[in-house]
Amino acid sequence: MMNIQQFLFTSILCVTGLTSCQTNEKNASQTIERMPKALLLQLSKTEQDPQMMFYLEQSVEGTTVDEVLLNSEQVMLNFINAIPDDKMSYNYGFGKWTVAEVLQHIISYEKIMTESALKIAEKKVENPFGNYSQSSTAAAGKGTTKEQILERFKVTRKETMATFASFTAEELKIMGTHEWFAASPRTLALCISGHQTHHFDVIQKRYLD
Asked: Cα separation of 40 and 37, whole Å?
């Protein structure tokens, strides 16, 4: 039986059309390693800040920003739906976030990255320190249900996609900063996807294995 990480890999393959949803675990793991990062390959050298590559390289497939956001949306929905309801309030140690809080962090940070992308496109100066803390990005997830998290994500992703759809092709390439790191709006779209993937892995290893 697939664990959630293997389920995630298969979900990525399904939404990008690289294989059928009946692909077995072995084929899924082999194919994920061969997946091209089409949008990532379009980035200029200046858009590939070494500090951002950790998330960029974990983004799902897509040749455009819209495709990356659509594909990662489906993967996120599949991942959340696969989590047992009784795990949403679980944490693995004192002071650690619950699963729901980790998922809320993903949603909150998507809003932050989208706001940064908007400021970059509008050539506004980004506050490198931000107006948030790590704990504040997760706080609203405490005590929430799977259904509440799903609804929050859907609303947030709809707003994210509308924001990125409003940018011209040139605006997507404008360089600015997100926190202290060099980034363009399309870089941050990839980071939204890669940030999800990173925390899916954390949830799988720390909370569900």
From this structure: 5
Under DSSP, is residue 187 helix (H, G, I), strand (E, B) or coil?
Answer: helix
* The predicted structure's pLDDT at residue 40: 92
Average pLDDT, the chain: 84
Cβ partners under 8 Å of residue 114, min gap 6: 159, 160, 163, 164, 188, 192
Strand ranges in 145-203 using DSSP code E only, listed in sequence order: 176-178, 181-183
pLDDT tens for 170-193 read 999 999 988 888 999 999 999 999
Region of 99 on the Ramachandran plot (φ > 0 left; ψ -120 to 50 alpha; else beta): alpha
Question: For the whole model, what pTM was predicted?
Answer: 0.81
CA 115, distance to chain mean position in Å, is 15
CB 182 within 8 A of CB 48: no
Residues 120-158: pLDDT tens digits? Answer: 999 887 665 566 677 889 999 999 999 999 999 999 999
Q: Which contiguous run of DSSP H or E holds residue 82? A: helix 65-82
User: Distances in Å between the alpha carbon of 153 and those of 26, 34, 104?
Assistant: 30, 29, 8
Which residues have CB under 8 Å from 79's CB, separation 6+? 4, 7, 8, 11, 200
